[in-house]
Amino acid sequence: MKTNLIHKGDCVEIMQKEIDKGSIDLIFADPPYNLSGNGLQWKGNTTGGDWFMVNEAWDRMSAPEYMQFTRQWIGASHQTLKDGGSIYIACSYHNIAEVMIVLRQLDFKINNIITWQKTNAMPNMTRRVFTHSTEFIVWGVKGKKWTFNNEDLKNLNPDKQADGSPKALRDVWPLPLVQGKERIRGKDNRAIHPTQKPEELLRRVIVASSNKGDIVLDPFLGSGTTTYMAKKLGRKWIGIEKEGKYVEVAKKRMNI
Ligand SMILES: C[S@@+](CC[C@H](N)C(=O)[O-])C[C@H]1O[C@@H](n2cnc3c(N)ncnc32)[C@H](O)[C@@H]1O
Fold first, then answer.
1. First-to-last C-alpha distance (Å) of the chain
2. Can you state the angle between helices 63-80 and 96-105, rounded to 10 degrees?
3. How far does residue 244's CA lie from ligand 1's centre (Å)?
4. 26-69: per-residue pLDDT in tens?
5. Which H/E stretch holds residue 14?
6. Contact (CB, 8 A) for 141 and 89
7. 212 to each of 26, 68, 167, how far by Cα in Å?
8. What is the total count of domains within the chain?
9. Mean pLDDT over each residue of the chain, to the nearest integer
10. Is 76 in the pocket of ligand 1 (CB under 6 A)?
11. CATH number for 126
12. 116: which strand partners?
């Protein structure tokens, strides 16, 4: 099986046809959260530039369709994983229920639900609920012998013990939404991908649950954050993305 490449197409089909069963050490998946539709936007935001709520055709399904879709892609992911392999799934309050049900049905062991606390979260546009400032990353493992590089993670932790020594990383990660130089923007200065994930978040996931030379797969690659960080950290990488415009962005980011 070829590695260090980006497949264009539907991730379920590609995982079934192109990825060897039992070959993948780590999957990071940032699927559609199924939250598009209301077109909220905030133009003239002075700190981070204009902001538009995710509003994409790939992110709009009925509840039964979304359940079915979640079953299909997590099922295909399960087949590609090695025994001892890990899957990290990004989600929010919109879709964590479907993700957890399917992981349990497939007998994944849930090791953590990491909370990504967005330190520069967007303001509450509706003013009818608490301001949303978190997303989650559910970590599931196939089998009992998983990789967890605790010492390497301690070195990534900005928090230290009282005596200045490294401290174990907790399951709440305060990290900003991607802005500044890291945010990939088009000529109109609008963010090219609406849900580009922070590189630091991917660094933590990849360091935690893979080793140099291992294969990291992202079935919903988007702008290519996972493959970019996997390459940087000396892992082999495979990305899958169905939209041609994002495949091009990710390829450019990978210099391929
Ligand atoms: C939430 S975004 C991922 C963003 C990515 N983590 C990043 O940092 O840029 C989800 C991506 O999955 C893609 N997508 C949606 N359905 C897909 C499918 N069935 N197969 C492959 N890609 C899909 C969308 O085009 C979108 O780019």
1. 18
2. 50
3. 11
4. 999 999 998 765 555 556 655 555 555 566 676 678 889 999 99
5. helix 11-18
6. no
7. 12, 35, 23
8. 1
9. 93
10. no
11. 3.40.50.150
12. 135, 173
Which secondary structure element, helix H or strand E, spans residue 168, and what is its range?
none
Residue 67 main-chain phi, psi, to 5 deg: -60, -45
| Tokens standing for residue 37 | 């539709």
User: Which range has the worst mean pLDDT, 11-20, 79-88, 122-131, 243-252?
Assistant: 122-131
Residue 193 burial by Cβ neighbours in a 10 Å radius (0-12, 13-18, 19+): buried
Give 136's strand partners: 91, 115
Atom of ligand 1 nearest to the CA of 220: 12
Query: Where is average pLDDT lowest: 21-35, 119-133, 166-180, 221-235?
Result: 119-133
Q: Please give the Cα distance from 218 to 191 (Å, whole number).
A: 21
Residue 142: CB within 6 Å of ligand 1?
no
Pocket test for ligand 1, best of 241, 245, 251, 253 (most atoms within 8 A of CB): 241
> Which tokens sit at 97?
């229920």
Q: What share of the chain is helix, strand, coil (3-state, %, to 5)?
A: 30, 25, 45
CA atoms within 13 A on the CB side of 222: 21
Cα of 211 vs centre of ligand 1, distance in Å, is 25
Judged by DSSP in three states, 43 sits in coil
Which residue in this structure is represented by tokens 């079935």?
219
- How far is the C-alpha of 200 from the C-alpha of 70, rounded, in Å? 26
Average pLDDT over residues 198-209: 98
Confidence at residue 79, expressed as pLDDT on a 0 to 100 scale: 98
Best residue among 58, 60, 91, 254 to mutate for probing ligand 1, ranked by most atoms within 8 Å of CB: 58
Domain that holds residue 61: 5-254
